[in-house]
User: Fold this.
Amino acid sequence: MITATEQACDGQRNDDGSVFPLLIVCEPTTATLEDAAAWAAERSDELGAKAAEHGAILFRDFPLVTDQDFDRFITAFGFPNFTYEDSLSNAVRTNRTERVFTANEAPADVNICLHHEMAQTPIYPSKLFFFCEKPAEQGGATPLCRSDVLFDRMTNEMPQFAADCAEKGLLYSHVMPAVDDAASGMGRSWQSTWKATTPQEAETRMAALGYSWEWLNDGCLKVTTPQLQAVKQLDNGRTAFFNQLIAAFHGWKDARNDPGKSITFGDGSPLDPATMDRVIEMAEEITFNVPWQAGDVALVDNYVAMHGRRTFQGTRKVLASLVAS
Ligand code: FE2
Assistant:
């Protein structure tokens, strides 16, 4: 038997009358993992709706310790799994179970900027679960930012830029290595990304999805997406800044990639760096940093809230699982 209550926490935001994130704390009991799974299974529709309303839910003090416990808990929600293999994610990842994998394994000193998961591709998950197996010794919070709140503020402060985003959409370019490069936050090889063993197989998949491409002399592959949306209409009538603009503009940096060349409006016109700096600043102003404790689970609605990763020291083990739409 689980008893869980909604509670307030330090730094919790309240924009437009809705707390962010919603914190649900399990009372100290002798409750078992199976109790927690039954609790989630009974309320999965309600919890999914609350994640959409609030942007994210943080579950604290539930009886979860291992990756297997996390898998059991989230499987109980009954949400459809979104597999890494089927995704066009840029990151290198390692699966722990069929639905649980390590979060982006980029080095500790790499700041992963705010983004909507896989919004730089035509195939993206509807929700994400995170699980803290081991918090970092220092830092390592997961920043969460509500994109509907951000887009409201952009519309007020920079109406032309907001309108351009909505009307023109975005094109993303990036260079994929010939072999996985775990030292980069975007080091997934083109073979893995396109599930291809030959360039011809990769080209068939890219053409089907509307990508354009260029093979580079060193075996790397430069790709440009079809025109993708920069905003998304939510079911509640609000508009979210649904994209990877911030991450691509300031974060897509490695041995192969220059952030200054990775993104344009959908008509090929450039983004103004000063405006982007202000967007990033506004996003930081409304960001909540998840102060991970071992056993915490976060459920993030990927249409409503962006996430990232702060730099850290020590060993940090945060696992993730994605939900298909
Ligand atoms: Fe991510």
